[in-house]
Amino acid sequence: MKKFVFILIFTILCSGSGLNARNLWAFLTYATFNSPEGPYVETYLSVAANSVKFVKKENGKFQASVNIIMTFTKDGEIKAFKKYDFFSPEIEDTTKLNFNYIDQQRFSVPNGTYDFEIKLADNNKSVAAVPYSQQIAVDFPTEKPSISGIELVKSYTKTATPGDLTKSGNDLVPNVFSFYPATDPKLVFYCEIYNAEKFFGKDQKYILSYGIEAFENNMKLAEYTKIKKETAKAITVVLSELSVEKLATGNYNLFVEMRNQQNEVVAGKKLFFQRANPAAQMAIADVQTAEIGNTFVEKITSIDSLKEYINSTYPIAAGLEKSFIRGSVKKSDLKTLQQFFFTFWQERDPNNPEKKWLAYHQEVMKVQANFGTPVKRGYQTDRGRVFLLYGPPNSREGHYNEPSSYPYEIWQYYTLNNTQRNKKFVFYSQDMVTSDFTLLHSDAIGEVYEPRWQGILRSRSYAPLDLGDTQIINAWGEVDSDAWTLPTSNL
């Protein structure tokens, strides 16, 4: 569970980000929408009550206050801006602070890519605000069909009196955390479809599909996919629920797609989320239904070799596959392992699963040669996992002898899974002996996000004064800022 808490706090979950403004803990997500008045960005900010200071008011109750500044900048010019105080609910007992409270804001901005910045500061503490920034793209063409951002919903009711949470006749309470523990049996989401009428023609039919796919390989999960015919309208509202009670622990995308009569995707949207559900396991009986006669797996008769082959697929495995590898590989017989292995690769290439496996195995041997250590196989290391999951980086810059820093590497990918652009990974070695570089920070979806990464790198020689501090003192001989901004080397 310790790793999950770390992910929850520091990982960028699609449009969501954990923010630590000097021990003020908050979580931010956003979604983009269109309207007759033009596009807008809606932000959802959740503040942890136990991270802010409550002060007593004249009525005897206690309340916290956070100063928030949000800015949208394009080409150096401020396009939208808000500065306001966000007040918590009034409470009577400050020993019961195990709750979060949510703020929602809307910003009208034209189509374009914006540099978004948020600054948070507790009004009742003498601590300076710490900024967080990221890019937000707004793109709603006037003639082509498009889909709004996907808003995860905690609960919804029919609107009695319209307010800030009202959309299309419902009051939606946003689910700011893109994480679903085992106690959450369902996933509720909201989105809007635009311009179907212009594209398909009034009252014409198109195919609407939505559901869950594995994050690692974008394979759609049939049991979590819904498909229906929809009538083309100017705006179509999608407010739906998916049962995730049996969804295994793992990383996933929630997807929404529009398809024409030829089953071609004309518009789509995805949202990353995580699930923790240890009880969900792959049934051995399901694995044992696979027919493996006259297939390549029959040639693999060494159970030890087959176990190693299966274990090497863990970086690219998804959901139930990971649960099988973790829990069933050691105790399964040869035939069951052969059936699992064949099914694994058949799902990835029905026409030639052996070719798919052999190509992957070549990459496994590469990571073993480059990243294996005396105590870990290459695919068990962080660099090996990233290499196998995303492929070789477009640039890889290594810094192993800076005076104040641990040895580190920065990898850059121009494109990840055809959906993310210009993403980077920082790996570092604390023991400085085994060459086992741990992933410290990345701005890629689903990966560890650590805003204090530069301070941690330099903690070899000094420790930052505050664990929430992201303002790093320049040290002689250090080039980590330049390396992050302009990684260009290929090692």
Overview of the structural elements:
With 491 residues, the chain is α+β, with helices and mostly antiparallel strands. The protein has 4 domains: 1-139, Immunoglobulin-like; 141-279, Sandwich (Immunoglobulin-like), CATH 2.60.40; 284-376, no CATH class; 393-485, no CATH class. It has 10 helices and 25 strands. Strands 11, 12, 13, 14, 16 and 19 form a 6-stranded antiparallel beta sheet that branches. Strands 15-21-20-17-18 form a 5-stranded mixed beta sheet. Strands 1-2-3-8 form a 4-stranded antiparallel beta sheet. Helix 7 (353-371) packs antiparallel against helix 8. The longest helix is centred in the C-terminal third of the chain and has 19 residues, at 353-371. The two termini are 36 Å apart. Mean pLDDT is 87; it is low at 1-15 and 464-479.
The fraction of residues assigned to DSSP E strands is: 35-45%
Low-confidence stretches: 1-15, 464-479
Distance between the termini: 36 Å
Gross morphology is: globular
Number of domains: 4
Mean pLDDT: 87
State the CATH architecture of the largest domain. Answer: Sandwich
| Fraction in helix | 10-25%
The CATH topology of the largest domain is given as Immunoglobulin-like
Radius of gyration: 25 Å
Number of helices: 10
Profile the largest sheet. Answer: 6 strands, antiparallel
Task: Supply the CATH class of the largest domain.
Answer: Mainly Beta
Tally of DSSP β-strands: 25
Q: Look at the helices and sheets and give the structural class.
A: alpha+beta
The CATH homology group name of the largest domain:
Immunoglobulins
